[in-house]
Design goal:
The complex is a heterodimer of chains A (about 425) and B (about 375). With about 425 residues, chain A is mostly helical. Chain A has helices spanning about 45-50, 60-65, 70-85, 90-120, 125-145, 180-185, 190-215, 220-225, 230-235, 245, 255, 280-305, 320-325, 330-340, 380-385, 390-395, 400-410, 410-415; strands at about 5-10, 25-30, 30-40, 155, 160, 350-355, 360-365, 375-380. In chain A, helix 5 packs antiparallel against helix 7 (about 190-215) and helix 7 (about 190-215) packs antiparallel against helix 12 (about 280-305). In chain B, helix 2 crosses helix 3 (about 65-75). The chains are: A mainly alpha (about 425), B mainly alpha (about 375).
């Protein structure tokens, strides 16, 4: 009998399902995958090294660009690490705002994930449905920080500024009639909190819509049930975290296990899967969106009732108010010092981790007592997930690889750093 | 002037005259078809756009009316790149091979009573043969490109085509048994009566199998594994650009329109008036030409193609094969047996139709009450 030879195939980096710059070298046997060799580094930007050259606050923006679909959560880990070393605690309102924006970010991330995952499997309508809602969260980002994606909103000692009292409005143009404009601006007529609350009230209905298209769809189930199964033991040993771990049935969530910000004060559940396949991970993430909406709702209620400072008053660390600088010599000096040499972080090392939408995102920070970090190590959840792709996909077909890449929810910003 | 042309015409050999008249009628079908394909691409983008909460193309012409023309222009002006290691001859010939059957099958399609280019008696076989030919274009394109993605696409397409060709063939055997003719015009005429006499009802399972197989045969979502974008990039036409790609595109859409037209002829009574037998409406609509009904019915299927694409995720390659071999073929064979029984007993088709209707209503009611619940994993 003649020897049947397999072949090698390149999957990416220019590939519609490669989620950025993923390159996989596949050992194929017909349609069946025998081995996968992920190649990383195509989006390497040396974030860790760059952070060593900059004063602490200047690196916050780099954190946005790590996992560029869950921006503020990355900032949160970095800011928490600095705060731990400095030994400061931001005012409660700042922590509530962080909790709220972390959860809004989780929703954006999952929306982006659901859309891309659906598109990979061929359900392209879900993609645009998801982006419809994601657009509103981008508006919330914009309202609070001025940027739609890379917000740099969290600062050591609190958040950059308080929630605005009014939302930016859509402007008339020749492509939008007055009626359409009024409809768009209706939700945006109140404060940012009104807008968020309005969004959260209609969001569960939107999730129902996505689920109508997918959850009970036979084709969707055929493509995801039993695909890419990870047993709980293997998930632990492979260093999984986030929905990848919870999909396998392990109820591990840093928000519950090591509460940070105000997560010990809000009421929410952790969804867990049973089979550890793509479908369970899908269900877990969809349910997480609903739970996030629940948390945001509670945050909105608290934030409405409790005005207060959002930044520490210690001007050795946080910049003074602009108005004070005009007349007060000391404030001007503080501002000058902060803008030029930053602040000194005491010697020591710290690990701060947050439950990022994709898993555990950690910052390991070493300070030698200077105004710059001595070393930063970023723990990206996606790295461990991508590393397991060979094990998960062996013996599956090419089309299943696409489903698995979808549920891994990898973003190359954080894997290549 | 006109006398000159007339004289010239009469002076020609009869054979030449036949060729010229045929050519004229071919053009009468082809040119609107190509324009229809152009508009179909526009309609597709518009319909899917509205389904997805967008507006689709709206810049070229009134609400994007001329978008398709701009696309054609762009594709034609682009360079036709032939990869260095491709088989040049096959690479060039492949798009043509897939286009020719898609167009020539139209010769046998009756647009209205008697309005057909070639009223051949073996039209059903002719159409089966030609639609079967289309896959060679895909296979040859995949092979000639010398690319792994293209090759995978071609292999998938070939396997899929074999599976669905059989199901499709069986479905048409059912039509043949019911109409007792291979002539498409006779098939339509055999469906005369009311809307319940059309074969969609008595041959309901075959109707479903035929249309789904048609979707699979044209490589459309959810069966578009041969060009599954997220898996093998663009499948068999990944290496094609410019005109070559445009021709594949043309063939795919012409095939979709063809499958819609054939579904109408086989199962929805072609040019027949849907209100036949309805007391008042029949008189009111008596003057409507058959071609209008024909195109209106086609529009249903043409829309369904787009609707499927916007709604369904893509099947996996082996799941398509399973559906074809293990579901469709047994279903068609079973229904052929049922039909055989009806023919032997000499029962009228309409009884079979009402049986199907009754069974479907019972099934739908059962589904209502036994409604399944989603498992919750929280």
């Amino acid at each position: 009998m003649r020897d049947i030879q397999g072949y090698t195939m390149n999957f990416g980096p220019q590939h519609p399902a490669a989620h950025g710059v993923l390159r996989l070298v596949l050992e194929m046997e017909g349609e069946v995958i025998r081995a996968i060799d992920p190649h990383i580094g195509l989006l390497h930007r040396a974030t860790e090294k760059l952070a060593e050259q900059r004063i602490f606050n200047q690196s916050i923006g780099y954190m946005d660009r790590l996992d560029y679909v869950s921006m503020m959560v990355n900032e949160h880990a970095y800011v928490m690490a600095i705060e731990k070393l400095l030994g400061i605690t931001p005012p409660p309102r700042a922590l509530w705002i962080r909790t709220m924006y972390d959860e809004l970010t989780r929703i954006t991330n999952h929306l982006m994930w659901l859309g891309a995952h659906g598109l990979d499997i061929g359900a392209m309508t879900v993609f645009l449905y998801c982006f419809r809602e994601r657009e509103d969260i981008m508006d919330m980002y914009e309202a609070v920080s001025g940027a739609r994606m890379h917000a740099s909103y969290y600062r050591p000692g609190g958040v950059y500024r308080d929630l605005p009292d009014r939302m930016p409005q859509y402007q008339p143009s020749k492509f939008r009639s007055k009626k359409e404009l009024d409809k768009l601006n209706e939700a945006r007529s109140g404060t940012l909190l009104d807008f968020i609350e309005d969004f959260i009230d209609r969001f569960p209905k939107a999730v129902d819509e996505y689920e109508t298209l997918l959850t009970d769809n036979r084709i969707w189930k055929q493509r995801t049930v039993g695909i890419g199964v990870v047993s709980p033991e293997r998930a632990l040993n492979l260093g999984f975290s986030g929905p990848m771990l919870r999909g396998s049935g392990i109820a591990w969530d840093l928000r519950k296990k090591q509460p940070y910000a105000m997560y010990d004060q809000v009421d929410f559940d952790i969804p867990v899967g049973t089979n550890g396949d793509c479908y369970d991970r899908y269900l877990v993430r969809v349910e997480e969106m609903r739970q996030s909406a629940r948390i945001v709702k509670q945050c909105v209620q608290w934030l409405r009732a409790n005005p207060g400072p959002v930044m520490l008053d210690d001007h050795k660390i946080t910049p003074p108010r602009r108005v004070e600088m005009k007349g007060d010599m000391e404030s001007l000096i503080h501002h000058f010092k902060l803008a030029t040499e930053g602040y000194i972080v005491p010697e020591g090392e710290v690990y701060a981790a947050v439950e990022q939408p994709k898993g555990e995102f950690g910052i390991y920070l070493v300070s030698d007592g200077a105004n710059k970090p001595y070393r930063i190590k970023i723990r990206a959840s996606g790295f461990a997930h991508l590393a397991a792709i060979d094990e998960i996909c062996r013996g599956h077909m090419l089309a299943d690889l696409v489903s698995v890449i979808g549920t891994l929810d990898i973003v190359f910003g954080e894997i290549d750093r | 002037m006109s006398e000159l042309i007339l004289g010239f015409w009469n002076g020609l050999w009869p054979e030449a005259r036949l060729v010229l008249t045929s050519l004229f009628w071919v053009l009468v079908i082809m040119v609107p078809l190509i324009v229809a394909v152009g508009f179909y691409t526009l309609v597709e983008r518009k319909v899917i756009g509205y389904i997805q909460g967008r507006v689709g193309p709206n810049r070229v012409g009134f609400h994007g009316t001329f978008q398709w023309l701009a696309d054609v222009l762009k594709l034609v002006l682009k360079e036709f790149v032939i990869p260095a290691n491709a088989n040049r001859f096959l690479f060039v010939i492949a798009p043509i091979i897939s286009l020719v059957p898609a167009f020539s099958a139209w010769a046998a399609v009756p647009f209205a009573d008697g309005i057909v280019l070639a009223d051949i008696n073996a039209a059903l076989l002719y159409i089966l043969a030609l639609t079967g030919m289309g896959v060679y274009g895909v296979i040859i394109a995949g092979w000639a490109s010398n690319s792994k993605y293209a090759f995978l696409g071609a292999m998938r397409s070939a396997a899929q085509m074999v599976a669905y060709e059989i199901a499709m063939g069986f479905a048409l055997v059912g039509v043949l048994m019911a109409a007792k003719s291979l002539n498409l015009g006779d098939i339509v005429r055999a469906q005369e009566g009311s809307i319940f006499h059309w074969y969609w009802l008595p041959l309901f399972p075959l109707f479903l199998v035929y249309f789904i197989s048609g979707v699979a045969e044209t490589n459309r979502a959810p069966f578009d594994v041969a060009e599954g974008e997220s898996e093998i990039v663009a499948g068999f036409h990944v290496e094609y650009s410019g005109t070559g790609f445009a021709v594949f595109f043309l063939a795919e859409y012409a095939n979709m329109i063809l499958v819609s037209a054939l579904s109408v002829v086989f199962f929805l009574g072609g040019w027949l008036n849907p209100f036949a037998g309805v007391p008042w409406l029949e008189d009111v609509t008596a003057g409507v030409p058959g071609m209008v009904w024909f195109f209106a019915k086609m529009a249903i299927f043409i829309y369904a193609f787009l609707w499927f694409r916007a709604t369904f995720p893509r099947y996996r390659y082996d799941q398509i094969m399973r559906l074809g071999w293990k579901v469709f073929i047994p279903v068609t064979i079973f229904w052929l047996v049922v039909m055989g029984l009806f023919i032997v007993m000499n029962w009228p088709w309409i009884n079979l139709g009402f049986t199907v209707l009754g069974i479907s209503i019972v099934l739908i009611l059962l589904g209502r009450f036994a409604g399944s619940k989603t498992p919750v994993t929280t």
